[in-house]
Hints:
Elements: H1 2-9, H2 18-38, E1 46-47, E2 60-61, E3 75-85, E4 88-98, E5 105-112, E6 118-126, E7 129-132, E8 134-137, H3 138-150, E9 153-162, E10 165-173, E11 178-188, E12 191-192, E13 195-200, E14 226-227, E15 237-245, E16 250-254, E17 260-266, E18 269-274, E19 285-291, E20 299-304, E21 309-315, E22 329-336, H4 344-358, E23 365-371, E24 375-377, E25 384-385, H5 388-399, H6 409-417, E26 426-433, H7 440-450, E27 455-461, H8 467-476, E28 482-484, H9 490-502, E29 507-514, E30 517-522, E31 535-542, E32 548-555, E33 558-565, H10 577-591, H11 602-615, E34 622-631, E35 638-641, H12 678-683, E36 717-726, H13 731-739, H14 742-754, E37 763-769, E38 775-781, H15 788-800, E39 811-820
Parallel strand pairs: 2-14, 3-15, 5-35, 22-23, 22-26, 26-27, 27-28
Antiparallel strand pairs: 1-35, 3-4, 4-11, 5-10, 6-7, 6-11, 8-34, 9-10, 9-34, 12-13, 13-19, 15-18, 16-19, 17-18, 20-21, 21-31, 23-24, 23-25, 29-32, 30-31, 32-33, 36-39, 37-38, 37-39
Helix pairs in contact: 4-5, 4-9, 6-7, 7-8, 10-11, 14-15
Amino acid sequence: MATWRNRLGRRRNRVTRRSRVWLGSLAIMFGCLLVLALKPLTYQSIPEGHDPEDKTLSPYFVVQGGDPETDALPLKDTRAEVKIAGKVANVTVTQVYKNQGKKTLEAIYVFPGSTRAAVHALRLTVGERIIDAEIMERQKARQIYEEAKKTGQTASLLEQQRPNVFQMNVANILPGDEVKVELKYLEVLKAEDKVYEFVYPTVVGPRYSNVPATGAPDTEKWVENPYLHQGQAPPYTFGLTVEVRGGLPLAKLASPSHEVKINYINPQVARVTLADEKTGGNRDFVLRYALAGDRIDTGLLLYPGKEENFFLLLLEPPDRVKKEAVVPREYLFIVDVSGSMHGFPLDTAKALMKNTISSLRPQDFINVLLFAGASTVLSESGSLPATDENKKRALEFIMAQPGGGGTEIVPAFQRALALPRTKGASRIVVAATDGYVAAEAQLFDLIHQNLGDANLFPFGIGTAVNRFLIEGMARAGNGEPFIITNPAEAAKQAARFQSYIGSPVLTGIKVAFQGFDAYDMEPQALPDLFAHRPLSLLGKYRGTPGGTVVVTGKTTTGDFRQEIKVVDGQGSQANEALKFLWARERIHGLSDYERLGRDKDAAKIKEITDLGLKYSLMTAYTSFVAVDKVKRADGTVTTVKQPLPLPEGVSDLAVGNGGYGPGVITKLGALPQAGSAMKEETAGLSGLPPSPSPPPGIPSGPPAAGREQKPAADIPSLTVSILRVVGPMEAAAAQQALEAKLSRFEKCYRDAKAQGVKLPLPVKLQVIIGPEGKATEVRQVGQAAPSASLLKCLMAAVKETAFPKPASGQVEVVVQFKVTGR
């Protein structure tokens, strides 16, 4: 069982005996299929002290075996109670564990949090007993927890593995026990373009890691977690309630991620709940709202504490002024084509790239680097002029990649940032990834040290992206993060990106204090504003508040200056959250560029630890531990890792590389120039093992999960066009949604050609789109009579497409599929 798990569910970094690796993988693959066919699927528990032979830390699929007396799914319910008042969200997360087996359990659950969360409290409830956790140094908290586990005491331990990834351990859950764990956190909400957004992450996506399992630090071992297969619903219920108190009448309150029920208590207060608690736990929950009159909540909040005083300044920047950039731009696109990007994320990335590249001007320049386990570049000698021919070449280079392999993001960025610069052009770096890697700190430092005067704009694509990585890349690269959770948002975000780079809202920002004794500001330097969102500044102050805060900067039309008066009446004990939020912001800044392993900065570690202990906050070096003083068991426990669902839209290829060796970038058809050099480029990267070459008959990348892999058939160029739209929907939005599924449509044609079908005349389909943005009816129109299998495939792919939700009623769209160059 261990051998099967290690080989199928983990990456293997072998550089010799390539043929044996591929033949072994093939044999194991068929063996696994045979075993799966003969046995029902159960979940594996990890006995106390079990230490299987490992190669690298990697997520894996839940495997067969297990003990019928063990409840391998101890987490029964997780829910969040969110109260948004003014600028601050107060969140209580409750996890309920129940042991329905016959053995005493230790449950381990890896779960996400907001990148801005200040986790400040933990409570354990066992029966009628309530235990409030203490904040301690990480190692000390772990020691206390392990001792309680051995002595039979029920205990919980909450550790931070990343600023947005936490691990909960609950020991000595007796048969029949129901144990409840509550954690509390705070975060500041900010408006962008006068719209507020609250995000509650629900699941941690599988992380690629090349860290050896033997000797791996404690902060990395969480990567090794079991996952369910794609499409399997979460094994626990997920509930969420949000109470929004806007202070002004609410407008445009909606969730683009989940179906919700909204109950307005009054014009200023609303209560939002999920319509379905069984299937919502596999993607980020997003709630957006605006205030009446397009107002945003700006001003100064004060908290006069017993030992320290804190303030929060939110100040609305000037409106964006449209101005065409004169200087030529050099665009460097870095696109993740690894296994976790297969399907919806990569299809959306391709649609985004097509939209962005098509809009480049003749005076601009372009280059593209694609990466998975290795990388390949469009032009090694430097960026190409953005002519129509070169833009087409770049798009073909991107569109040919199906997605597969690992995610060696650091070597890819090393190579990309070392590419020759174009003289006289301003460099813009655009990165597209889901962020499912465990090398955040190294990447932030690499960007910070090597980007130069360029700006980096990362696009996080997926239903549950690693926001810590995406937002950290933007901070390190002096850019803005973009998150795309569904295909319909690709066009909007591409337009938003073009607006940002046209001209920043505000540059050269400085804050001065006149008659107000402020100190210890966070962030210590305000970056240029590309987005139209409030300036946010946290800090401390001495003495009686008074005076003025002055903010200055430059816009495209001249100097900017705003003043805000400081008065004692702005202080309130109700603003106690400010001390937690200030400390979290300071910790955030210290943690971004912190090296892992032996390069850790001892002084920085001490500062982070001291902040966590002083302000009772979760950090990488402080943890919460709660121990029930009652001894309830003999210390013999079975450890169970709670399996997680794959995020919606993520395929099985994200876990363990689908059972294949290190990923390679594959091509479906001939690519101009770049494709011919691909093999040489992927084999010669410094620090990367060469990808194994499969023997004849074995695909060069992992196949789509659950489908028979056939040789790819070349097809002429396929275009998808909107011929008519009747109803409240923009044709461009419908076109963008269909283009996000282009690789799916192309597969229909490739499969048809492989079966000997002669490519037909244009295919026209009439599509009825319902209120939820889904095709409720698809029928063929026109005279063309394609093969039945091709028509069925195209109609099924259209029904899978996520269109924008119509403003009202339903929409009729006529779409045409056409192949050219026959």
